[in-house]
Amino acid sequence: MNEIIIPTPRGDIHGLTAGPEDGPVVIGIHGWSQRNGAHTWAPLVEPLGAAGYRTIAVAMPGWGDTPKWEKASGKPVVAGKSALVAILDSLGVETAHALMGKSWGGGVSLDFALTYPGRVNKLILTAPAYRGDLSDLTQRLNKPVLLAWAKNDQVIPLNFGMGIAEAIVDCQFEIYDEGGHEAAQHNVADFAPKAVTFLNN
């Protein structure tokens, strides 16, 4: 796993990467807390990279080593979908093979797939903080989703995850006894092979 800097017109995006540079691209997006950053998806970067995917876990603008994006007024911008567009454009990637999103990053990933359906093929999510209408997922989300949740998640409870899983037409739902708000990462020995199979199919 190596550090990567992705230059964009709004500033550099910092991240961690593994896998062949010509492999299908998988982008990992962290949660909202400042404890999050590129390291959030680090447990998946190496195994997915070893499976042939160019896997990049990013620190979004304002997190980790990535500077905030600001408006002309100097006020900070919460860049979610716009940052993903800039990242893919800077990488020269029209369509990401997958987005991985945790919590806030999961919500961003779902919103991105609904807004730019041609720019992503699949989603790998753990406890996504999706704020939209669940009916939009049923009616408009045409992407396969691998979803992980832990029974002991104290931030977003499992029953919310059950609703999301039921709303998504093509959803593989993995439920773990432990893992808190990072079910995929804390159960990586079980989850990573399932993620590779999901990406390969």
Would you mind describing this structure in some detail?
- The protein is an alpha/beta fold.
- It has a single domain, classed as Rossmann fold (3-Layer(aba) Sandwich), CATH 3.40.50.
- It is built from 7 helices and 10 strands.
- The strands form 2 sheets. The protein has an 8-stranded mixed β-sheet, sandwiched between helices. Strands 5-6 form a two-stranded antiparallel ribbon.
- Strand 9, helix 5 and strand 10 form a beta-alpha-beta unit.
- The chain is globular.
- The two termini are 24 Å apart.
- The model has no long low-confidence stretch (mean pLDDT 94).
Itemize the secondary structure elements and their pairings.
Layout: E1 2-8, E2 11-18, E3 25-29, H1 42-50, E4 54-59, E5 69-70, E6 76-77, H2 81-91, E7 96-102, H3 104-115, E8 120-126, H4 134-140, E9 145-150, H5 158-167, E10 171-176, H6 183-186, H7 188-200
Helix pairs in contact: 1-7
